[in-house]
Amino acid sequence: MLELKHISKLFPGVKALDNVSLSFAQGEIHALVGENGAGKSTLMKIITGIYRPDCGEIRLDGKSVEMHSFRDAISHDINMVSQEIQIIPEFTVAENIVLDRIDQFRTGPSVDWKKVNKTASEYLKMVGLCIDPTLRTKGLTVAQKQLVQIARALSSKAKYILMDEPTSSLTSHESSTLMNIIRKLKANNVAVIFISHKLEEVLEICDKVSVLRDGQYVGTLPCEGLKRQDIVKLMIGREENLDHMGFLNVKEENVLEVKDVSKYGQFDHVSFDLKRGEILGFYGLVGSGRTELARLLIGAEKMDEGEVKIMGEKARIHSIGESLGKYKLGYVSENRKEEGLILDFSVASNISITVWHKITNFLHKIDTKQERKVIDSMISKMSIKTPTPLMKVGNLSGGNQQKVSIGKWLAADCDILIIDEPTIGVDIGAKRAIHDLIWRLAKEEGKSIILISSDMPEMIALARRILVFKDKKISGEICSLNQEIIRYTDVSEEIGRLMA
User: Fold this and answer.
1) pLDDT-derived band of residue 483, with 50, 70 and 90 as boundaries?
2) Check: CATH 3.30.70.20 for 254-499?
3) Which residues share a beta bridge with 4?
């Protein structure tokens, strides 16, 4: 039994945890849920020695223990799959998987690399990731990096495994594989502490669910017979709004035309168009070419063949700065930690960075009044929880970081916005707010949006046309979604058919 007794943690201006007591038993899958900023990730970091509590204690099998570092947690058979991607880019996949126990592979002064690679391959197979273990991890996608993190946790053979939003960047297929792995861990008497905003996953796999709200413990309930609405009400203190998004007034004008675009090894002869006021969905498994295509459109990578037109004119985009400044084309990256944000910069700087070129005066200095107006507007519009705009964005919760990542592009007033996995690691309330925001951008402001998402309900709720990607090509198109009522089952079955 892992027990937390009266745990509190205070950060400057924020009481992250307030007298929280919880217990987790081996052979049990125990969910921990709450809105962003509720204290879930902070609690996990205290368990694993990354943070020290200001007061309270941790007890393991009835004995009080102190965690001064993550290595202490490992020594007590505790491991964690972090929400943030925590791998060493220059190391190989295999090196990252065995990183916490590399000494076990030493024979004298040397490391048995053949054994390292063989062991890594076994755990890669377990998580359904078919890649060479000798590849450097810097070239992997976000989802692949997440699977490597999961493989690393599994390889430690810990008795307690903490999973913080483990499926946030995974497709439904990969998530299903992980669910089966978690069930096997339970059968082997491992305790899994499961943090997820996907309540369907919680109800599918967990035995118990504990709720935190504003840093305080609300309660613990058995999952058997529990309904999604019951959990949501505990999390946010009110009923969830599940209204359908409805009809979009899509214009016939093409704002973006892509013809026979290819990037060797990533996607092959892709063609599509995007209309004014449309939300166009990109759906597919990891590696199907969705994100790779988006990065090419914004100039982050160079196409090998094909043509792109914006507002009817041939576009030559060589950089992200050019896509924004010349073509008003923005991109919200799925990888907010490495690409979407500058974690050591303030919330204010991250939001206003895309508009600095617009608010510079004749002395080449930023007009601070205009900048503050933009910042305050975005913090309010996105409901970003921060004690001050000067707070480092790296100190915010994952969901609030995602809001900042989206907000900086909204501040730039893009005509075309590519949004890659907009609600990764975002709670129920924030998710609905982001959905409403995306919808209003298209419906009320006439923005054209490409939505890349592995969340099928999100895709069906928002996208009025869906392109399904398979084997680095568009395998089909679903275009009968621009109506007030949509049957989820019909659309999901059609997506499944196109991906088969």
Assistant:
1) low
2) no
3) 22, 58
